[in-house]
């Protein structure tokens, strides 16, 4: 384990930034969704890095929790996306503005 | 053992295992046709070689020489990639399944498993879930409605049955207290086979394995009367052969996995009391493993030619309303066994 | 340069490149497909960090569950009704400025901070430790997550039927 901890963190930071860029620039609901998964993954990567460099498995346990939440989020999120697609026949999140007054 | 020796031994083991799987798969196709002929009172392949024994090789040659047709509507890179994923998944899964005890070669104690991973069962589950991609992407990328329907059906089916499969494995893990396949085999010494201790889990796993390998009675993804050829309608030549090979390799791996998890793996009951030398012990163990796998493969083929196909809603009902609760019950049953008998 | 370095750079390259393509490709199916490689790369990095259990769970949950759901979403919303599968990007310039700012802050803080690290080798099998924590110290979280998953299941099913 002679790779500096910063390398892993920069990798995770890059993944997070790519996710942020995706959420900001893309307008397809599913791609926004994938970008959110990217960000969650980068957070997981940081947690595992710290856990591994501290010699403590609690961080890995929290990754496990994050994954559970991500799975729940994926199920509900995609159900919402499909329901919206059935009603409006679009996935563009700028067109889905019915909750705006 | 230094790292170089480990690498050499691993490469040799990989070569042996891949050769065995390829040979087993080609002969599996032959036996499937022979057994189906037996079930339907026909003769079956009998022209190429002795009683048609070389028929599979002739088939492979024929498929290799055929034209590779990619439909215009297809998404070409993914269309090509899908059979590769299918083959990759079927061949890499075998890496963690042990087919014999440790043997002594040139003074080294070599375990008869390609990779003795301590999370082997999770590895198998992870790769099984990858198998869904091959079929889903094949169905989507072909650009044909039959393929797409086959692909969607198969993903739904495989995801549903993966759940009961995972929960059935839960019972095994409770008893063996390890995720390492070698230790799971060793925990089933004598007649302590998991199939005997937890028959319900064995049945749910067996049924899920049938569904995961897309074999009849669960071959909805390629139900010929409804969907032409299902997800591989638009495949021809070697790409079709890839799917075909992967299906049979999956069957082989499912059988090996069932033997490892539920039927005592390579263990012959009470063989260690016979006082055999290490070499003979290993040989008998490997033969025991082969016989168990062969018996299960025969069962797979036998079921295919005896039972009609399920309807799609029946399949989903069976998966979610019967197999899933039963596999949960099995976990409770194993927990009670452990509490009462202190296993 | 030893074998760990090579493996690290390999997986890092896979992760970074495929993550970049997930966001920039115009075809949604390709995005989902690149995401598969990102998850794989991350799983490889986990193995490198000694977190074998988490690496496999990553494959099972993300690749085997979430990404399949996403692919389902793509296939059910694109192929059946002929909605355009290619989608563009908007607000590239403001987003780039924002991301650049965030990148500056993140990278500066990462490189500047003196990270503490312990030289204890991770146990070769992490499964037992995680399992012990899960049923002892964090048992309530575990139960709550079970309830959360149940709620998500019911919610998704009720939304999807109609």
Number of helices of chain B: 12
Helix content of chain B: 55-70%
Number of helices of chain C: 6
For this structure, the CATH topology of the largest domain in chain C is Four Helix Bundle (Hemerythrin (Met), subunit A)
In the CATH hierarchy, what is the class of the largest domain in chain C?
A: Mainly Alpha
* Rg of Cα set of chain C: 20 Å
Uncertain runs of chain B are none
Work out the number of β strands of chain B: 2
The separation of the N and C termini of chain B measures: 35 Å
Radius of gyration of chain B: 21 Å
Low-confidence stretches of chain C: none
Outline of chain C: globular
Strand proportion of chain C, as a percent range, falls in: under 5%
CATH 2nd-level architecture of the largest domain in chain C:
Up-down Bundle
What structural class do the secondary elements of chain C suggest? mainly alpha
Helices and strands of chain B, in order, run as HHHEEHHHHHHHHH
Largest sheet of chain B: 2 strands, antiparallel
Question: Which two chains have the most extensive interface, and how many residues on each?
Answer: A-C, 71 and 84 residues
Quote the average pLDDT of chain C. Answer: 82
Shape of chain B: globular
The number of domains of chain B is 1
Q: Could you explain the architecture of this structure?
A:
With 101 residues, chain A is an all-alpha fold. Chain A is built from 3 helices and no strands. Chain A has one domain: Helix Hairpins. In chain A, α1 (5-25) runs antiparallel to α2 (29-54) and α2 (29-54) packs antiparallel against α3. By secondary structure, chain B is mainly alpha-helical. Helices cover 67% and strands 3% of the residues of chain B. Chain B contains 12 helices and 2 strands, in the order αααββααααααααα. In chain B, strands 1-2 form a two-stranded antiparallel ribbon. In chain B, α2 (55-65) crosses α10 and α5 packs parallel to α12 (312-341). The two termini of chain B are 35 Å apart. By secondary structure, chain C is mainly alpha-helical. Chain C folds into 2 domains: 1-84, NADH-ubiquinone/plastoquinone oxidoreductase chain 6, subunit NuoJ (Four Helix Bundle (Hemerythrin (Met), subunit A), Up-down Bundle); 124-162. Helices cover 75% and strands 0% of the residues of chain C. Chain C is built from 6 helices and no strands. Chain C has helices spanning 3-24, 28-48, 52-78, 92-112, 127-135, 139-160. In chain C, α1 packs antiparallel against α2 (28-48) and α2 (28-48) packs antiparallel against α3 (52-78). The mean pLDDT of chain C is 82. Chains in contact: A-C, B-C. Chains A and C meet through α1, α2 and α3 of A and α1, α2, α3, α4 and α5 of C.
């Amino acid at each position: 384990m002679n790779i500096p901890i910063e390398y892993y963190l920069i990798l995770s930071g890059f993944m997070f930034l790519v996710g942020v860029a995706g959420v900001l620039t893309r307008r397809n609901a599913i791609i926004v969704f994938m970008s959110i998964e990217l960000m969650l993954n980068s957070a997981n990567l940081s947690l595992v890095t710290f856990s591994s460099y501290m010699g403590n498995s609690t961080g890995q346990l929290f990754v496990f929790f994050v994954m559970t939440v991500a799975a729940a989020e994926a199920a509900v999120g995609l159900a919402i996306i499909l329901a919206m697609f059935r009603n409006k026949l679009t996935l563009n999140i700028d067109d889905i503005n019915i909750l705006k007054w | 053992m230094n790292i170089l020796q480990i690498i050499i031994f691993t490469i040799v083991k990989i070569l042996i295992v891949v050769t065995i799987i390829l040979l087993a798969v080609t002969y599996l196709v032959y036996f499937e046709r022979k057994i189906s002929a037996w079930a339907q009172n026909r003769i079956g392949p009998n022209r190429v070689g002795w009683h048609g024994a070389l028929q599979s090789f002739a088939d492979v040659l024929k498929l290799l020489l055929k034209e590779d047709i990619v439909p215009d509507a297809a998404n070409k890179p993914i269309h090509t990639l899908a059979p590769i994923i299918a083959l990759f998944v079927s061949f890499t899964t075998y890496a963690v399944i042990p087919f014999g005890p440790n043997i002594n070669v040139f003074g080294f104690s070599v375990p008869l498993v390609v990779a003795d991973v301590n999370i082997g069962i999770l590895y198998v589950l992870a790769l099984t879930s990858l198998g869904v991609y091959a079929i889903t992407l094949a169905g989507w990328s072909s650009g044909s409605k039959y393929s797409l329907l086959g692909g969607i059906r198969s993903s739904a089916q495989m995801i549903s049955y993966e759940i009961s499969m995972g929960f059935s494995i839960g019972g095994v893990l409770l008893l063996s207290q390890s995720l390492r396949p070698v230790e799971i085999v060793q925990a089933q010494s004598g007649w302590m086979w998991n199939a005997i201790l937890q028959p319900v889990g064995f049945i749910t796993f067996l049924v899920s394995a049938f569904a995961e390998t897309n074999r009849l009675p669960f071959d909805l993804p390629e139900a010929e009367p409804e969907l032409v050829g299902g997800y591989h309608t638009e495949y021809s030549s070697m790409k079709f052969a890839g799917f075909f090979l992967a299906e049979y390799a999956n069957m082989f791996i499912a059988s090996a996995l069932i033997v490892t998890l539920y039927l005592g793996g390579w263990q012959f009951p009470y063989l260690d009391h016979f006082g055999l030398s290490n070499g003979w012990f290993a040989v008998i163990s490997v033969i025991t493993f082969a016989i168990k796998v062969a018996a299960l493969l025969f069962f797979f083929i036998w079921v295919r030619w005896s039972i009609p196909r399920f309807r799609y809603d029946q399949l989903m009902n069976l998966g979610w309303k019967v197999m899933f609760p039963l596999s949960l019950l099995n976990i409770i049953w194993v927990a009670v066994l452990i509490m009462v008998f202190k296993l | 340069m030893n074998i760990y370095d090579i493996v690290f750079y390999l997986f890092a390259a896979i992760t970074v490149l495929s993550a970049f393509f997930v966001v920039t490709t115009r075809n949604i199916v390709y995005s989902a497909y690149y995401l598969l490689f990102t998850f794989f790369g991350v799983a490889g990095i986990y193995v490198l960090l000694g977190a074998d259990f988490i690496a496999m769970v990553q494959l099972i949950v993300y690749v085997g569950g979430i990404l399949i759901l996403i692919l389902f979403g793509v296939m059910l919303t694109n192929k059946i009704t002929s909605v355009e599968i290619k989608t563009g990007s908007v607000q590239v310039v403001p987003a780039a400025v924002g991301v650049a700012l965030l990148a500056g802050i993140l990278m500066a803080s990462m490189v500047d901070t003196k990270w503490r690290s312990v030289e204890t080798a991770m146990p070769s099998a992490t499964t037992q430790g995680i399992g012990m924590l899960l049923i002892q110290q964090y048992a309530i979280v575990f139960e709550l997550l079970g309830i959360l998953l149940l709620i998500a299941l019911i919610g998704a099913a009720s939304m999807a039927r109609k």
